[in-house]
Write a structure and sequence with these properties.
The chain has about 160 residues and is an alpha+beta fold. It has helices at about 1-15, 50-65, 90-95; strands spanning about 20-30, 35-40, 70-75, 100-105, 110-115, 120-130, 135-145, 150-155.
């Protein structure tokens, strides 16, 4: 199974090179039959057309190399808007968006993702003023080390 994941990773790295699309995660289960789930995204969002293109590419390559059984399931989709970020490109894609962070200590915070690097993320959190008569929100920049983050995901707000 690890060879299959490694091969899929390699095939998609080549296919997505020089594009604004990226691989997020690969899951392979072999309970009843082989099921391969590939989660990919693009900086402007992945389209169904792109998922179909990646699926057909993988199907052809995996079958020609004899890496899958005669019957298997291959799913290529976006990782989902409600899922935690897994790769740096997801942070890039969501700069300027509202994110929710869960720390390893169990604290939850949210704010606008301003920037990130290999070690930290910076958000602009909005807190209510301490004086209840003052209805303004106070903007506060917070830098959070990745070592303290359990999960980060985009917060979907319906207006």
């Amino acid at each position: 199974m690890s060879q299959l994941i490694s091969t899929i990773n390699h095939l998609l790295a080549i296919k997505l090179e020089n594009t604004n699309c990226f691989l997020v995660e690969i899951k392979v289960t072999d309970a009843v039959g082989t099921k391969i789930q590939v989660f990919a995204d693009c900086l402007e969002g992945i389209t169904i057309k792109k998922c179909v293109e990646l699926s057909r590419h993988l199907e052809t390559e995996l079958e020609e190399r004899g890496l899958v059984p005669e019957k298997y399931v291959l799913e290529v989709s976006s990782p989902g808007a409600d899922k935690a970020f897994k790769v740096p490109q997801q942070y890039t894609k969501n700069i300027g968006e509202l994110v929710e962070i869960k720390t390893k200590e169990g604290q939850k915070m949210e704010g606008i993702l301003l920037k990130f690097d290999e070690e930290h993320i910076t958000i602009e959190a909005h807190k209510a003023a301490k004086n209840p008569k003052n209805k303004q929100l106070i903007k506060q920049q917070m830098t959070i080390p990745f070592t303290k983050i359990k999960a980060t995901k985009r917060k979907i707000v319906f207006k």
